[in-house]
């Protein structure tokens, strides 16, 4: 038994390749691999994968992991764009692998299709597509993303008008996938810029009429590493798989800082 | 009857207010940018388009303009706003791109030294310009 077979068996490979479905075409999936025990640098590795136009990129990664190379490492959980686990750079842009269809990445004119997949940038890579989310979560925790109130608890639920709820509706959609933060050129730098996702989640509470911690959060974001490092490049808005107007939320926080009394 | 305590709130905790340089510089960039649109476009128009444009510029032309406090103030404002606007922009570029603390520190020192030199020299010339210096023709 060779080392490769041991790897395949211990890494969750699922045995022989299944029959290729009708209408499938072979496309090349080029993945940035990194094994910290072997590689000193990340390297590209290509796999030929039979794919249907209706497949998602996540299906291609599953195919590689299950039938071609069981050592491929990536995160995914719900596989339906809710949990935010499988954020990665697909053809150079940050996307959820479970929300990108192969048909949208096909090269036209019957040319061979190559899809590149790399880990999201700006976070330390543990292995292959698996990154350390801790710096991201640290920034998230720093903005106090929870309801803050003072005084006694009300005896009934905290009522809110529909208009007040609408004020921060957009930023409630965040699933913490890190697509926005890791598309931000300022975050790529080794500073400690909070990043778009943390600001989005601060926005969600700053503009909540029931919350009383806005001033604390605004003070945190008024810091040198806060909202003022945003250069409005709109990468975050383009990257967000939930369609949150991230840059707009950041600008609203800036405006709140400017005009607060 | 139960007591309806709808919003029994303690007064909001006063937040710690800090003067913030990043906020001030962010506002400065917007305000100076707007002012510079007028100042620089006006300057370019006068220097390059009006009355034969660049060909009429000589010592006498400059002397004529700087004899008026209006143009002195115009040029002084343009000098300070453009220099500080550009320097602040470069400062953020250095902050974003310099990877090592040492590099960042020395690039900024160079930047600030150049700002001080240029502002001093420009201001000095505008205020001490002497139109009576004999010119060689």
Helical fraction of chain B equals: 55-70%
End-to-end Cα distance of chain A, whole Å, is: 72 Å
Shape of chain A: elongated
**Share of β-strand residues of chain B:** under 5%
The CATH homologous superfamily name of chain B equals Fumarate reductase/succinate dehydrogenase, transmembrane subunit
The CATH topology of the largest domain in chain A: Ubiquitin-like (UB roll)
Poorly predicted regions of chain B are: 5-16
Number of domains of chain B: 1
The total number of structural domains of chain A is: 2
Tell me about this structure:
Chain A: One of its GO terms (molecular function) is 3 iron, 4 sulfur cluster binding. Chain A: Its cofactor is [4Fe-4S] cluster; [3Fe-4S] cluster; [2Fe-2S] cluster. Chain A: This is succinate dehydrogenase. Chain A: Its EC number is 1.3.5.1. Chain A: One of its GO terms (cellular component) is plasma membrane. The complex is a heterodimer of chains A (261) and B (137). With 261 residues, chain A is α+β, with helices and mostly antiparallel strands. Chain A folds into 2 domains: 5-127, Beta-grasp domain (Ubiquitin-like (UB roll)), CATH 3.10.20.30; 132-153 and 160-259, Fumarate Reductase Iron-sulfur Protein, Chain B, domain 2 (Orthogonal Bundle). Chain A is built from 9 helices and 7 strands; from the N terminus they run H-E-E-H-E-E-E-E-E-H-H-H-H-H-H-H. In chain A, the strands form 2 sheets. Chain A has a 5-stranded mixed β-sheet with strand order 2-1-5-3-4, covered by helices on one side. In chain A, strand 6 (125-127) and strand 7 form a beta hairpin. The longest helix of chain A has 14 residues, at 246-259. Chain A is elongated. The termini of chain A are far apart. The model of chain A has no long low-confidence stretch (mean pLDDT 91). The relative contact order of chain B is 0.10. The radius of gyration of chain B is 24 Å and the shape is elongated. Chain B has helices spanning 21-48, 59-66, 69-97, 101-128. Chain B has a single domain, classed as 3 helical TM bundles of succinate and fumarate reductases (Up-down Bundle). Chain B starts with 20 loop residues before the first helix and ends in a 9-residue tail after the last helix. Helices cover 68% and strands 0% of the residues of chain B. With 137 residues, chain B is mainly α. The model of chain B is unreliable at 5-16 (pLDDT under 50). The A-B interface holds A 149-152, 154-156, 185-186, 189-191, 212, 215-216, 218-219, 222-224, 226, 228-229, 231, 254, 257-258 and B 2-18, 20-23, 25-27, 92, 95-97, 99.
């Amino acid at each position: 038994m060779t080392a490769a077979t041991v790897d395949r068996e211990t890494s969750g490979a699922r045995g022989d390749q299944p029959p290729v479905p009708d209408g499938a075409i072979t496309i090349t999936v080029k993945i940035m691999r990194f094994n910290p025990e072997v590689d000193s640098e990340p390297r590209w590795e290509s796999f030929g994968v039979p794919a249907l136009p209706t497949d998602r990129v996540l299906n291609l990664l599953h195919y590689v992991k299950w039938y071609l190379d069981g050592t491929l490492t990536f995160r995914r959980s719900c596989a339906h764009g809710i949990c935010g686990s499988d954020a990665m750079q697909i053809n150079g842009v940050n996307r959820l692998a479970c929300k990108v269809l192969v048909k949208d990445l096909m090269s036209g004119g019957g040319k061979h299709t190559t899809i590149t997949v790399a880990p999201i940038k700006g976070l330390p890579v543990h292995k292959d597509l698996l990154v350390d989310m801790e710096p991201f979560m640290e920034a998230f925790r720093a903005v106090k993303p929870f309801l803050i109130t003072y005084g006694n608890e009300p005896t009934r639920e905290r009522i809110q008008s529909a208009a007040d709820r609408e004020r921060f509706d957009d930023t409630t959609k965040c699933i913490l996938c890190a697509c926005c933060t890791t598309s931000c050129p300022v975050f790529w730098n080794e500073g400690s810029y909070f990043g778009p996702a943390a600001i989005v989640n601060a926005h969600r509470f700053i503009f909540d009429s029931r919350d009383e911690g806005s001033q604390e959060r605004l003070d945190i974001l008024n810091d040198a590493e806060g909202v003022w490092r945003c250069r409005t490049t709109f990468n975050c808005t383009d990257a967000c798989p939930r369609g949150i107007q991230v840059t707009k939320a950041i600008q609203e926080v800036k405006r709140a800082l400017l005009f607060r009394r | 009857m139960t007591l309806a305590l709808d919003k029994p709130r303690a007064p909001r905790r006063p937040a710690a207010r800090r003067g913030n340089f990043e906020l001030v510089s962010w506002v400065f960039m917007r305000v100076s940018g707007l002012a510079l649109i007028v100042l620089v476009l006006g300057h370019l128009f006068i220097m390059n388009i009006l009355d034969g444009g660049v060909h009429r510029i000589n010592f006498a032309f400059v002397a004529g303009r700087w004899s008026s406090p209006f143009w002195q103030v115009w040029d002084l404002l343009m000098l300070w706003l453009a220099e500080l606007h550009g320097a602040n922009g470069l400062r953020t570029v250095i902050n974003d791109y310099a990877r090592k603390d040492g590099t960042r520190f020395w690039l900024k020192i160079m930047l600030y030294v150049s700002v001080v030199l240029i502002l001093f020299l420009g201001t000095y010339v505008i205020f001490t310009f002497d139109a009576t210096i004999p010119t060689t023709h």
